[in-house]
């Protein structure tokens, strides 16, 4: 039996320049607390803060995913979490080893492989590829291919081109009935000033679906402003000493 899973990373919806994205913090599966502290330090820095606050949302794509979700059966199981690594177990809960998996990953990143062999948010798809008869579609952010060097005509990049969709329009046209929907916020890749937009997507899901598992506090906005306030005196002192 074919089982279809829709996996959505909120960082797909970021409207950002390549320069802004390259300035983002680095890391795999950082906790919400740590990533909030890291983001607060980014907002404090002059140039970095300007780049971070310049990041907006691809409104048309956000509206499109909401339409796709609202067309799904209300009985479709849903999980909302912080890290994409939790999609791995979510898939296993729905798709048996005898099923064929068809995965649509809506994401800034392909999440297929990285330098880590251990399961994490950046390689969870490679683990599924080893375990299932699987078809994969990656709906990539407009700057994803350039950002990660996948736009270059190299042998290792050609496999990606066969699975890439550059927006959600064709997914909407195909009118797939998904057997499971996963959404993550990806705290280390999503600036917290956009949390209210993420929560609007959570509201769409909560209003439509009957069975939604949410990670604790995932619908709370990260309180990065208070962290900035705590860091500001030390940062200002450092700045004055550097002048």
Q: Could you state the order of secondary-structure elements as H and E?
A: EEHHHEHEHEHEHHEHEHEH
Question: Radius of gyration from the CA trace?
Answer: 19 Å
Task: Name the overall outline.
Answer: globular
What is the typical, i.e. mean, pLDDT? 92
End-to-end Cα distance, whole Å, is: 66 Å
**Total beta-strand segments:** 9
* Major sheet attributes: 7 strands, parallel
Structural class: alpha/beta
Short characterization:
The chain has helices spanning 18-22, 32-44, 46-53, 59-70, 86-94, 124-131, 144-147, 155-161, 169-174, 195-208, 224-242; strands at 2-9, 14-15, 56-57, 78-81, 100-107, 133-140, 164-165, 180-184, 212-214. It is an alpha/beta fold and 243 residues long.
Provide an overview of this structure.
By secondary structure, the protein is an alpha/beta fold. It is 43% helix and 17% strand. The strands form two sheets. Strands 7-6-5-1-8-4-9 form a seven-stranded parallel beta sheet, sandwiched between helices. Strands 2-3 form a two-stranded antiparallel ribbon. Helix 4 (59-70) runs parallel beside helix 10. The longest helix is centred in the last third of the chain and has 19 residues, at 224-242. The radius of gyration is 19 Å and the shape is globular. The mean pLDDT is 92.
């Amino acid at each position: 039996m074919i089982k279809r899973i829709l996996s959505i990373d909120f960082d797909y919806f970021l409207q950002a320049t390549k320069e802004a994205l390259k300035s983002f913090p680095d890391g795999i599966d950082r906790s919400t607390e740590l990533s909030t502290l890291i983001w607060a330090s980014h907002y404090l820095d002059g140039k970095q803060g300007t780049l971070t606050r310049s990041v907006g949302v691809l409104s048309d794509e956000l509206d499109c995913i909401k339409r796709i979700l609202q067309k799904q059966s209300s009985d479709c199981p849903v999980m909302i979490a912080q890290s994409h690594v939790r999609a791995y177990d979510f898939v296993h809960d729905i798709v048996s080893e005898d099923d064929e998996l068809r995965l649509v990953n809506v994401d800034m990143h392909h999440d297929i492989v990285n330098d880590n062999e251990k399961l994490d948010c950046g390689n969870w798809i490679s683990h599924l590829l080893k375990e299932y008869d699987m078809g994969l579609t990656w709906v990539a952010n407009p700057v994803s291919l350039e950002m990660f060097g996948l736009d270059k005509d190299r042998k290792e990049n050609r496999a990606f081109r066969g699975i890439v969709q550059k927006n959600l329009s064709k997914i909407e046209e195909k009118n797939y009935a998904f057997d499971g929907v996963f959404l993550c916020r990806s705290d280390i890749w999503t600036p917290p000033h956009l949390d209210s937009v993420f929560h609007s997507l959570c509201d769409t899901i909560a209003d439509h679906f009957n069975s939604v598992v949410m990670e604790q506090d995932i619908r709370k906005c990260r309180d990065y402003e208070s962290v900035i306030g705590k860091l500001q005196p030390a940062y200002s002192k450092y700045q004055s000493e550097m002048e």
